[in-house]
C-alpha cells in the first residue's frame, strides 16, 4: 500500500489537534512505544485495533496483545502503559470517544 502525501498530512493534522494530556494522546503514545514483528501485517494490526473500538472493555487485554506483537515487553511500553493511568477501561475509552467527537478538524 502506498501512502500519499495527502494521507500523511491528514494524519499529521489529526495528531496536532489532539490535546497532549487527553486519553487519546496517552493511547497514541502507548501505540508509538509498541513495536510489531516484521511478519505482522498492517491488516492484522488494524483488525485487533478495530476489535478494541468495538469492545472497549477489552482495553487491558488489548494492551497486552499489542505489547506482545514483537514478543518482547520493553520498559518503554510499560512506561507508556503506566502513563495511561487506566483504572476503569470502559471509562477510559468512553472519555477517549468523547475526545474524538470534540476534535476540531
3D structure, described in words:
The mean pLDDT is 92. The radius of gyration is 14 Å and the shape is globular. It has six helices and no strands. Helices cover 67% and strands 0% of the residues. Helix 2 runs antiparallel to helix 5 (75-84). It has 105 residues and is mainly α.
Globular, elongated, flat, extended or rod-shaped: what is the shape?
globular
SS element count, helices: 6
* Residue fraction in strands: under 5%
Structural class: mainly alpha
The radius of gyration computed from the alpha-carbon positions, rounded to a whole number of angstroms, is 14 Å
Query: Main β-sheet: number of strands, strand sense, barrel status?
Result: none
Distance between the termini: 25 Å
Averaging pLDDT over every residue, what do you get?
92
| Amount of helix | 55-70%
What's the assembly state of these chains?
single chain
For the secondary structure, the number of strands is 0
Short description:
With 105 residues, this protein is mostly helical. It is 67% helix and 0% strand.
Keywords:
mainly alpha; globular; 67% helix; single chain; 105 residues
Topology:
Elements: H1 5-17, H2 23-33, H3 42-54, H4 59-67, H5 75-84, H6 89-102
Amino acid at each position: 500500500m502506498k501512502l500519499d502525501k495527502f494521507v500523511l498530512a491528514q494524519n499529521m493534522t489529526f495528531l496536532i489537534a489532539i490535546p497532549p494530556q487527553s486519553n487519546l494522546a496517552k493511547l497514541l503514545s502507548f501505540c508509538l512505544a509498541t513495536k510489531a514483528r516484521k511478519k505482522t501485517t498492517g491488516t492484522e494490526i488494524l483488525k485487533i485495533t478495530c476489535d478494541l473500538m468495538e469492545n472497549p472493555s477489552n482495553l487491558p487485554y488489548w494492551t497486552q496483545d499489542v505489547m506482545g506483537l514483537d514478543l518482547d515487553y520493553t520498559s518503554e511500553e510499560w512506561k507508556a502503559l503506566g502513563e495511561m493511568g487506566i483504572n476503569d477501561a470502559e471509562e477510559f475509552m468512553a472519555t477517549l470517544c468523547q475526545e474524538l467527537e470534540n476534535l476540531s478538524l
